[in-house]
Specification:
The protein is mainly alpha-helical. The chain has 22 helices and 8 strands. The strands form 4 sheets. The protein has a two-stranded antiparallel ribbon with strand order 1-4. The chain has a two-stranded antiparallel ribbon with strand order 2-3. The longest helix has 42 residues, at 520-561. The chain is globular and about 80 Å long. The protein starts with a helix and ends with a strand. The model is unreliable at 34-62 and 502-525 (pLDDT under 50).
Length: 627
């Protein structure tokens, strides 16, 4: 646990400084003046009103500390990927990182001091809660269950990254080593393997801890019994964090993908709810969405979020700003695609539809196609690759029967949310046409509105859910879309129906001008209408609080039930497996004596004896298929 804490402190310092420096450069070239997004709570009315004044760097995307950490996390990962093109990601990479941090502070020391000054005088209650969560998640990251795929290829991928960086044709040794994920570069950068001890794997736990801090505002919403769409997303994020508490020790790309997706959607909803008008924070979240795609390609539909800032940029003809965001996205994705080509010979492995490169180390097309089909059928619950083209109506019922009870409920909720979103879309079109007619008559309709940013988020999570369901619907591949689709769609509808109507925004200005005044009966009807909606809002808030208490109790029971007085100093190491040695051109490789897992120590290894040839004199020069 102590080793986890020390590495997290180092990660926190370096990512915060790098994130500060990058955001400082971006906002210097794209001046950012945003709304103050803090909510002013009217406890007597049980309502939340968004108030704002113009102020620099005042939005959650910039003002909140997590923005610097997250921006830095992305930047150091992208840099680690570029660095891996030339050398292993080890001691030298960390030296370069530290030098960049020192230069950032020296160049902009006064502004940096102003930025961190508020951190020296934190709200003590919030500080104590965050510190307790820090220790709790450090404890969870120091021990737990190592994911099966970590022993299969995660650990080997990270070790190749540590020692050699990128290696031509590495996927020919083991096709899963071609599952290039930027999360492996992050894990290698902060593994501290160059110290001569073990290779630590703390990055997923650090990201999970950051998400707990992002979820804390739900407490204020529960106290005033006023939940917004972002609070429902936070609720599902807490649900997921509890589920992976004993697994986040593993550097699996699935955990990085899910946690980053939660962060993007939650912060997007925060921006929408506070009435953020600037394009910059939405665009930066879209760049983070590009990074999410490099963590796991199956999350690529998160890029649907770009529709909102793109439409605004085009409408406002901000071509220079558009070019900046496109450049940021290209730089973020570029090392991922370069590594894909070097490792596998394919731009996007294992999908052979895009065949742009004719290199000697390319993984054979037949093997790549087989691998892609195997991923699909495995997610659908069967193992016969020859049935990969089975119609959805045939495999879906069997797949659904194999789900756990809670997963069945959540999947059904997400499917219902898709239909609800379609109905919402029809409603919005009707509202748009009604608004145009009212405008022609001089009236103003102010109620029943759903912001374009919120609808974009709803459409994105619903589209991602459908894509996951129709391709390879293994729960751990896309649980974030299952959780978020119901939360964001129904949360947005709940906010519209309960809060807007309860606020008394049910009459248009045109109607009031025509009627002049309301009868006593109409006033009583509105009061009664407001009363039941407030009661419904309180009931939902109580249900959400009970769910959080239940998950908290379940987590406490799990921790106490599995407690062992170990790993207080050094984090639990990768699992060890029995292997045997064999040689290729005088170089020793390893294979598992049973099963297909080899872990970290047996290096280099593969689940079966590889049929490969070297491209040069050693393994660092790369491999090609023997035939």
């Amino acid at each position: 646990m102590l080793s986890v804490i020390l590495i997290w402190i180092y990660m926190g310092i370096t990512t915060f400084i790098i994130g500060y420096g990058v955001l400082r450069v971006i906002t210097r070239h794209l001046p950012y003046y945003a709304n103050v997004c803090a909510g002013k709570i009217d406890t007597e009315a049980g309502d939340r009103h968004r108030t704002g004044r113009e102020g620099k760097h005042s939005c959650p995307m910039i003002q909140n500390v997590d923005a610097y950490f997250m921006c830095g996390l992305v930047c150091v990962t992208v840099c680690a990927q570029f660095y891996s093109l030339f050398a292993g990601v080890g001691l030298a990479a960390n030296v370069v990182l530290c030098v960049l941090c020192v230069l950032t502070v020296l160049v902009d020391g006064r502004a940096f001091a102003e930025t961190i000054r508020p951190l020296a005088h934190p709200d003590m209650l919030r500080f104590c809660v965050v510190f307790a969560l820090f220790l709790l998640f450090a404890y969870g990251t120091s021990r737990g269950i190592i994911h099966y795929d970590t022993g299969l290829y995660h650990a080997q991928s990270i070790r190749w990254m540590e020692e050699y960086g990128v290696v031509k044709g590495l996927g020919n040794l083991h096709c899963r080593l071609a599952y290039n994920s930027s999360s492996f570069a992050l894990s290698a950068l902060y593994s501290m393997a160059f110290l001569g001890g073990q290779s630590y794997h703390c990055a997923a736990g650090w990201l999970a801890f950051l998400l707990t801090a992002v979820c804390l505002p739900i407490g204020k919403s529960l106290r005033v019994r006023r939940l917004l769409a972002s609070d429902f997303a936070r609720l599902m994020c807490v649900y997921y964090l509890v589920n992976i508490f004993d697994e986040m020790i593993s550097p699996a790309s699935d955990y990085f993908m899910v946690l980053l997706a939660f962060y993007i959607v939650i912060k997007w909803l925060d921006l929408s709810e506070c009435g953020e008008r600037a394009i910059l924070p939405y665009a930066l979240l879209c760049v983070l969405g590009v990074f999410l795609m490099t963590v796991k390609l199956s999350a690529a539909l998160i890029l649907l979020l770009t529709v909102y800032p793109a439409c605004r940029l085009i409408r406002e003809k901000k071509w220079g700003e558009t070019g900046v965001y496109l450049g940021l996205g290209i730089v973020t994705a570029l090392p991922f695609f370069i590594r894909n080509v070097v490792i596998s010979g394919w731009l996007v492995y294992p999908f052979t539809q895009i065949d742009l490169f004719d290199v000697v180390w390319k993984i054979p097309r037949g093997l790549a196609d087989y691998d892609a089909r195997e991923i699909q059928v495995w997610g659908r619950g069967y193992t016969d690759v020859t049935q990969f083209d089975m119609p959805m109506r045939e495999w879906l019922p069997g797949w659904f029967r194999t789900l756990a009870g809670s997963d069945k409920v959540l999947v059904l909720g997400a499917a219902a949310a898709v239909f609800a979103l379609l109905a919402e879309g029809v409603y919005l079109v009707w509202r748009w046409r009604k608004r145009r007619r009212a405008a022609a008559d001089g009236a103003v309709i102010r109620h029943g509105e759903i912001s374009p940013a919120l609808f974009t988020a709803q459409a994105t999570v619903a589209g991602s859910f459908l894509f996951w369901l129709c391709t390879s619907p293994l729960i751990r591949y896309g649980c974030v879309w299952v959780y978020l689709t119901a939360a964001v769609v129904f949360g947005g509808i709940y906010e519209l129906v309960i809060h807007c109507a309860a606020d008394g925004r049910g009459a248009t200005a045109g109607f009031r001008a025509q009627a002049g005044r309301s009868s006593a009966g109409e006033q009583n009807d509105r009061a009664e209408n407001r009363g039941w909606r407030l009661a419904a809002g309180r009931a939902v808030s109580v249900a959400a609080a009970l769910l959080l208490l239940y998950k908290g109790f379940a987590l406490a029971r799990e921790i106490t039930g599995s407690y062992v007085n170990d790993y207080w100093i050094v984090q639990k190491d990768y699992e060890a497996y029995e292997t045997y040695a064999y040689e290729i051109e005088g170089v020793t490789f390893f294979c598992p004596a049973a099963g297909d897992q080899t872990g970290y120590d047996s290096f280099p290894s593969s689940p079966a004896e590889a049929d490969i040839r070297f491209l040069g004199d050693g393994i660092g020069d790369g491999f090609q298929a023997a035939d």
